[in-house]
User: Fold Mevalonate kinase from Candidatus Ruania gallistercoris.
Amino acid sequence: LGVSDQRLDALVSAARAAGSAGAKLTGGGQGGCIIALADDAEHAEELGRALRGAGAPRTWTTTVPAS
Assistant:
């Protein structure tokens, strides 16, 4: 589809290397946004550090309650 680029691919790879439960680009592409899933808050912080280390200018963490 041509909506990704090397920067987004590198961030997805960094999230996966840091043990993300899943990671992919989100949105319409070319916007520089990915989503990465973690098992808990501590791992989410680790993912954020890994993503910032890979060049992500900002990261956000949110919790989705179990149903």
In short: Residues 48 and 59 are 6 Å apart (CA to CA). The beta strands are 22-25, 34-37. Residues 41-53 form the longest helix (13 residues).
